[in-house]
Amino acid sequence: MAKKLFTKFGLPLVGLACALLLWSMGVTALEKSTPIATAFAPLPTALAFREMLGGSDIWLHVVLSLQRVAVGLGLAIIIGVPLGVLVAMSKSFSGAAMPLFQLLRMISPLSWMPIAVMVLGVGDAPVYFLLTFAAVWPILLNTAAGVARLDPNWLLLARSLSATRSEIVFKVILPGITADILTGVRLAIGIIWIVLVPAEMLGVSAGLGYFILDTRDRLAYSELMAAIVLIGILGFILDYLARAAHARWLHVKN
C-alpha cells in the first residue's frame, strides 16, 4: 500500500522538486550575466502566480482561450472524423486524398499565420483556422486506423441484415472506433494547446497568448513566468480529462 502511494504521489513530487531545483540553479547561474533573470526565479514566480490568480483579468483570458480551444477542437472533430471514415472505406478516395493529407500534415500550422490574417483578418477567425488545422490530422488518422482495425465480419453482418450505409456508419463503425477517436482527440488537444499561445498573438485583445505579450510589454517578468506555469497546469488538466474519458470509454466498453 505504501509503495503504491509513493509511486502515485511520491514520485511525481520528487520529479517536481527536481524541476524546481534545476530551475533555481539555472536562474542562479544566469544572475551574474543577466540580472533580470532573478524575476524568473521560483519564489517571485510563485508570488506573482498567487497575485495573478486573485485578479479577475486572468480568468477572462483563460475562459476565452478555452473557448477557442473548444471551437477549434470541435471543428477538427466535425471535419476529421468523416474524412477518416471516408479514407478507410473508399480506396479511390484514400489513394487520391491521403498523399495530400500527409503533405498538409507536415506543414507547421504557424506557417499559415500570415495567410490566415490576410484572408480572414484579425480576430478570432484566423485563430480558429490555425487551431482546427493543427488538430484535424491526429483525429483523421486515428479515425481511419480505427476503421481499418474493425472486424470485417461486423460490416458483413450489417450488410446481410440490409443495413443502410448511414446505419452502418452510425450504429456499427462509429461505436466501434470511439476509443480511436478519443485517442486522436487527446493527441489533438496536446497539439492545439501548443499552437494556441502563438495563434493568440494575431491581433486578438484577450487570451493567454495576448496575456504573455502584455506581461512582456509591461516588463512584468515574474507575472510572465507565472502565466507560463498556468498554461502548463491548464494543459495538464486538459490532457488528464482526455485520458480519463478514454479510460472510462474502454471500461464501459469492456
Describe this structure in words.
- By secondary structure, the protein is mostly helical.
- The protein has a domain of 157 residues: Orthogonal Bundle (MetI-like fold), CATH 1.10.3720.
- It contains eleven helices and no strands.
- It is globular, with a radius of gyration of 22 Å.
- The two termini are 27 Å apart.
Explain briefly what this protein structure is.
With 254 residues, the chain is mainly α. The protein has helices at residues 2-31, 42-54, 57-89, 91-105, 113-120, 124-149, 152-160, 165-176, 178-199, 208-217, 221-253. 29% of the residues are buried.
Structure class: mainly alpha
What is the 3D shape? globular
CATH top level of the domain at 63-219 is Mainly Alpha
CATH superfamily of the domain at 63-219: MetI-like
Total beta strand runs: 0
Please give the count of helices: 11
Beta-strand content bin: under 5%
Radius of gyration: 22 Å
Report the end-to-end length measured between terminal Cα atoms. Answer: 27 Å
Pattern of helices and strands:
HHHHHHHHHHH
CATH architecture designation of the domain at 63-219: Orthogonal Bundle
Residues in helices, as a percent range:
over 70%
What CATH calls the topology of the domain at 63-219 is MetI-like fold
Low-confidence stretches: none
Organism: Janthinobacterium svalbardensis
Subcellular location: Cell membrane
Family: Belongs to the binding-protein-dependent transport system permease family.
Protein name: ABC transporter permease
